[in-house]
Amino acid sequence: MKPVKLLILFSLFSIPFVGVQAQVTNSSYVTKFGEKTLQFSIEVPISKAEVWKLFTTDKGLEKWIAPVVKTNIKIGGWIRTNYDKTKTTEDSTAIQLDIINYLENEMLTLKVNLNNNFPIEARSEDKNLQEIIQCVDIGNGKTKIISTMVGWGQGSHWDKTYTFFEKGNEWTYKEILKLFK
């Protein structure tokens, strides 16, 4: 193939990618058993080990999730955050996510504990709401982060809870992407 034709061919394939912005992909679905699955993913230009630090260290989480963070990373441990920088992680306004399990640099499963901002019916029924965070090496020093929330109940109170997390999780993953602009 002549160099000019090769250059034109290369240009045709590369032009659509120029200026493409990183985005949050919503790939939520309902399982064949009728259970809702809330799923978002993003791709970031760092290794799985660096992504792991963003999710499991106080300093990493403070960069994108909340100004006040305390972690106790172990099975049976927790991640506590507070969006109010004048408060602590021991304050009643703090959010605690219990660590169900993890595979270092690959997967973290968190028990989502609903607080007083959610309908009392959802809080009283909440036994299984979890977030599974996966880190997948996609080559060239890039990692795909996949967040999947499972364990939703049924009814209008759960629909409201789902909608809250659908909006909130999209915002949260956009915050991570801002680290790489």
TrEMBL record:
Keyword terms of this UniProt record: Signal
Ranges for domain Activator of Hsp90 ATPase homologue 1/2-like C-terminal: 48-178
Signal peptide: 1-22
Top-level division of the source organism's lineage: Bacteria
Family membership: Belongs to the AHA1 family.
Designated name of the protein: Activator of Hsp90 ATPase homologue 1/2-like C-terminal domain-containing protein
Organism: Algoriphagus antarcticus
